[in-house]
Amino acid sequence: MAEDSGQEKNEEPTQKRLDDAKKKGQIARSRELNTFVMLMASAALLASQGGRVGSGLIEMMQSNFHVSRDVIFEVQTPLVFFKQAMHDGLFLVAPLLIILTIAAIAAPLSLGGWIFSMDSISPKFDKLDPLKGLPKLFSINGLVEMLKALLKITLVGLVGWLLYNSLFAQLLGLSAEPMEQAIIHALKLIVHSFLILSGALIVVAAIDVPYQLWNHSKNLKMSMQEIKDEHKEAEGSPEVKGRIRRTQMEMAQNRMMKEVPNADVIVTNPSHYAIALKYDEASGSAPILVAKGVDLIAAQIRNIALENNVPLVAAPPLARALYYSTELDNEIPQGLYVAVAQVLAYIFQLKEAAKNHTSKPAPPKDIKVPPEFKQE
């Protein structure tokens, strides 16, 4: 957004921002950590399993090079020996490959966790444009990568020089040893040197891991405007929420109006409020408020009631008390039982008078509403 371009991104990323970044494959990763773990695993395997693998390879060569003249001229012999060599070779190196595979997977998992994102592996042809890649060479990340490369060269060179000085006498002494013993001794020196050189890279990994975590968090930081936009998007625009509320109110109003013909009485203000009550004697429960409204809605309730011969009783204090104290489809509060009972008693008297063709009773005039329910 244009209005957001001048704002600094100093705010911590929201959970939604973190989740979206993870879905896109944007998580903290350290290539230096991966390299260090792989090299150390390789060096440790060479130190612990190098002798076994070397002996196995020597036995393979001896068995394959010592073939009788009669056997070597058979047509199938090369294929048989090749299959056997492949089988023996894979059997020797399989444990090493399995351990290296586990190390290659465990190193990135230890930093960023497990993630599979189609977005990160989908082809991005814009990255093939060399002009778009030029700014990265002169960016902060490009400078950091260059410094890491220089640090690795310096470390490996320094450790290699120290190793050379410490092992110089042993290297010269190899020429005086018997050939088989010299080969074994040389291999041990190589593995020892490889292990130390690999271990030296822990300095680079120890610097790169915190930097990658910091850089990942920095890239996900948000401005205040971005946070506001995200909240607005999550909650929905005011216009949409307004339309939803209006639709819900219309649905509730339509449902409410359908209940008015089934009401026993409409308590009115008499013009501003209209409350429809329904009482089921068989259930033994309190009367239920099935519809209520003010002004236009109250007029609509009264009109429907008149069309369906539902009696109206004017009781302004009770109408206001019922409107503010009772929600739709709920029983009236206990404090209004006596007042509503007076109205219902009058309704029952009306029904009896109509049934017996007697004079109508006088409507209740002094309906008491408790002070806590009174509304001005």
Rg, nearest Å: 44 Å
- Terminal CA distance: 50 Å
Q: What kind of sheet is the major sheet?
A: 5 strands, mixed
Q: What order do the strands of the largest sheet run in, or round the barrel if closed?
A: 4-1-2-3-5
**Number of H/I helices:** 14
Oligomer: single chain
By DSSP, the count of extended strands is: 5
Helix content: 55-70%
What would you call the structural class? Answer: mainly alpha
| Percent range for β-strand residues | 5-15%
Write structural notes for this entry.
By secondary structure, the chain is mainly alpha-helical. 66% of the residues lie in helices and 6% in strands. The chain is built from 14 helices and five strands. A hairpin with a 4-residue loop joins strand 1 and strand 2. Helix 2 packs across helix 9. The two termini are 50 Å apart.
